[in-house]
Each structure stands twice: as C-alpha cells, then as structure tokens.
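Quarterly update, task 2.4: zinc ion-bound model.
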Amino acid sequence: MKKQALKSHCQICGCKLSSKKGEYAKPTPSGRSHGTRHHYIAERFFGRTTNKRKYQANPVFTKEDYQEYAGQTETFCYECHEELLHNPVFLPKDIVKFAELTKKRHYDETDKEKTEERHKLGQRIKLLNEVISKGLDELLKP
Ligand SMILES: [Zn+2]
C-alpha cells in the first residue's frame, strides 16, 4: 500500500505541523507540533507488523473486522497522536462501568485464564470504539 502524504495541519487540534528533523516529541513548540502518522487500526491487530519483533501474536480481528480501515492512516501533531490518542484518561468509575458493559456483552474472559484465542479482546476494542462513537454523537447534538 502506498504511503499517504502527511497533511499540513493536525486533523484533531488543527495546529500547523512542523517537520524539523530531531525535534519530534521535544517539549518545544516545533516538537509538540511535529507531524506524525497514526494508523486508525493498529497493524498488529490484523496480525501484521512493520517492526521486527520475533513474537507475532494471533490477530485480534478477523478479515471482516474493520477491513475498510486496514492500513489507513491520518496525520496528527505529536501531542494529539502520542499524548491524547495513545493515553486516554479513564477514571476509576468509568473503568467499573466499562467492565460492567464488557460483562453484559459477554466479552469478559469467562474462563479467567487467557488462551491463544484473542477474539474477546477484539470485541472489547470494538466496544470501546462504540462507546467513543456514541459519546461523540451525544456531545455533538445541538
Ligand atoms: Zn493536534
């Protein structure tokens, strides 16, 4: 798949992206606004990886899951990509509610011990995506 070009502005906060070599992640305006590419769906979830890890886990998703987004990326600034998207804040009360919802949908690990099977993790990831999507729809209502 052909790599998509980085856009000129962050697709979340809208800042003008910088591309100064050696600045990525530095606590400077150019480091914080450094352009970076984010996969909508992590490649490892499909059992693919671009790095050279020896251990390759079983895919989390099947061929039917999110295939239309496989390999698709978007451009963000360092802050929106690495700090916002990769480190969402979950408060204890929300973890309790998400665990309750997980159990209600039967996506919890009922056998209590992990196996090679990763289908339920895929279901929990999709459930979290549903929560975010419905929350966004609710907050965008006039
Ligand atoms: Zn941003």
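Highlight for this quarter: Helices lie at 29-32, 78-85, 92-104, 119-139.
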